[in-house]
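Appendix B, Record 12. Input sequence as logged:
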Amino acid sequence: MYEVTVKTGFSAAHQLRYYDGKYENLHGHNWTATVTVQTKELDEIGLGVDFVVLKKNVEEILKHLDYKNIDELPPFDKQNPSAEHLANWLFDKLASPIYDDNARLKRVEVTAF
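Logged structural output:
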């Protein structure tokens, strides 16, 4: 098995509903998304997955959140925009295009600073 990981970021605001503390107020973060794909085999030039293509796919999805209030965007207009829900959302968006007989999306990590 082989693994490739890409890391990228975006900036966005959110507020955690029903959170008892200051983070229930609207605030912003510089977010980081780390995505890992696992492959069984390498291709003829020794790649399991192309870093450039993977990062482009992740950034294409994340641009919908960049410099936005996440709470105003589906599904986060109804679902709490926690880092966990963001990671799940990104995983769901990436899983189908990546999964095949050789490659599978293994992990999505979202952190906020």
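The longest helix spans residues 83-98.
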